[in-house]
Amino acid sequence: MESSSSSQPTESPSSSQPTTSAPSSSRLAINRRRQQGNPILKYLRNVTFEWAEIKADFEAGKEMGILYLSLKWHKLHPNYIETRMNNDGTGYAIKVLLVLVNVEPRHILRELNLFCYRTGWTLVLCYSAEEAAEYLENLHISRYKNEQCAVNAIQERKRKRLGLAENYDEFNQAVSFLTAIRSVTTTDAQRLLATFGSVRKIANADIDRLLLCPGLGPTKAGKIHAFFRASFRRM
């Protein structure tokens, strides 16, 4: 998303503007041309950041590139993000698309999720500027770890936002139950629980809604849907 005054209100992220420089691995690097004035910047409180000449919108270390998109912008400019992902996502080991959900998302998110699934991007959904900033902070803090650690940090934040049970035994039991479904991994199960909030809601979801879960492709969505609708046979 271009953060120009024509697309979103401009708010100053801080009283002292960082200088443009080559990105430092100890700071969150921000693409000034595209992100200056983005309201999420004023909520970055737990990491230091700097303007930098980078391809992505944000860089968390040298290996992780993050693009930011609001669905409202995407509805007006549907080809924008695909072009950005193809042109500005090269060179990063970990590629994250951070999406602000600020319009009715169902069909739009399904298309974005499938595109990310096919092109190796991790889709992360947020519902406010403040939540987007918290995800950026989590990603930056996880920058020296692998992609799974970064994803886990995001899912833990979403688990707390949804108010899921603090009982980790209960959560782990739900994860174990879901991984009994053929081809569903632990990561898939954690994402499903973070997206829907409970096994019951996952079981009641249709395929279209299952496809809104980040990283879940049509094959796995179909298997999950079929699993909860299969008749139990007496052994």
From TrEMBL:
CDD domains membership: ERCC1_C-like
Annotated InterPro entries: ERCC1-like_central_dom (IPR047260), ERCC1/RAD10/SWI10 (IPR004579), Restrct_endonuc-II-like (IPR011335), RuvA_2-like (IPR010994)
Annotated GO MF terms: damaged DNA binding; single-stranded DNA binding
Region feature Disordered, mapped onto this chain: 1-29
GO CC entries: ERCC4-ERCC1 complex; nucleotide-excision repair factor 1 complex
Chief place where the protein resides: nucleus
Coiled coil: none
Biological process, per Gene Ontology: double-strand break repair; mitotic recombination; UV-damage excision repair
Position of the signal peptide: none
Domain ERCC1-like central: 32-139
The keyword DNA-binding is annotated on this UniProt entry: yes
Record keywords, A-Z: DNA damage, DNA repair, DNA-binding, Nucleus
Biased composition (Low complexity): 1-26
Pfam families cross-referenced by the UniProt entry: HHH_5 (PF14520), Rad10 (PF03834)
Subcellular locations according to the entry: Nucleus
Protein family: Belongs to the ERCC1/RAD10/SWI10 family.
Protein name: HHH_2 domain-containing protein
Record organism: Gongylonema pulchrum
